[in-house]
Write a structure and sequence with these properties.
The chain is built from 7 helices and 6 strands. It has about 190 residues and is an alpha+beta fold. It has 2 domains: about 1-105, Heat Shock Protein 90 (2-Layer Sandwich); about 110-185, Winged helix-like DNA-binding domain superfamily/Winged helix DNA-binding domain (Arc Repressor Mutant, subunit A, Orthogonal Bundle), CATH 1.10.10.10. The chain has a 4-stranded antiparallel sheet with strand order 1-2-4-3, covered by helices on one side. A two-stranded antiparallel sheet has the order 5-6. Helix 6 crosses helix 7.
């Protein structure tokens, strides 16, 4: 998403009276930039290449390390979404706007909280990885500690601590005994 915002600022049509918009919804994030692809090129033609509309802005962003490699933005967005198990971004281009849609998992993480789905789980003292673990459990149903550990990319000790905290806070419960222990949402 950061890449899309940087692209929107760098490549927007500054002659347009419209602004760059970042819209956040339950199931998606939209980044909308005024202006189409420069020089009447297609998405396929600019994928993996550098064709900046605003050279000075691109150069400034490169100098402050907001841009790592020219021409890699679209590819990086695709790869990062796939890396996180999500679909590639959807691009919509017309003469007035360049839009990027990032779709998240179909489940809404806020629906995990009972009784109100308006509570932010972080307000309840959960960190990002614990929220990610709850999302994983919502999708999988039952999961072992090892599955959670691999998904989160944490150590056995850290994963065990997170599980213990989630049990204590009433988000998940333990099911089974000994080496057959699995965890699920309450």
């Amino acid at each position: 998403m950061k890449e899309a915002v940087i692209n929107a600022v760098c490549h927007r049509d500054y002659f347009s009276q419209n602004n760059v918009f970042v819209n956040v919804f339950d199931d998606r994030i939209e980044v909308i930039s005024p202006g189409s692809i420069p020089n009447n090129l297609t998405l396929k033609e600019v994928y993996g290449t550098s064709n900046p509309r605003n050279y000075k802005i691109v150069e400034l962003f490169k100098r402050i390390h907001f841009i790592e490699k020219l021409g890699s933005g679209l590819k990086r967005m695709d790869e990062l979404m796939l890396l996180h198990g999500l679909k590639k971004p959807v691009y919509e281009i017309n003469t007035a706007f360049f839009k990027v849609f990032f779709y998240g998992p179909k489940e809404r993480i806020l629906e995990l909280v009972k009784p109100s789905n308006e509570t932010d789980l972080r307000e309840l003292g959960l960190n990002k990885l614990q929220v990610k673990a709850l999302s994983f459990l919502q999708k999988k149903g039952l999961s072992t500690r090892k599955d959670l550990q691999e998904f989160l990319g944490t150590t056995k000790k850290t994963t065990t601590r997170y599980i213990k905290e989630l049990i204590e806070k009433g988000f998940i419960k333990r099911q089974g005994e000994s080496k057959k222990v699995k965890y699920k949402l309450l």
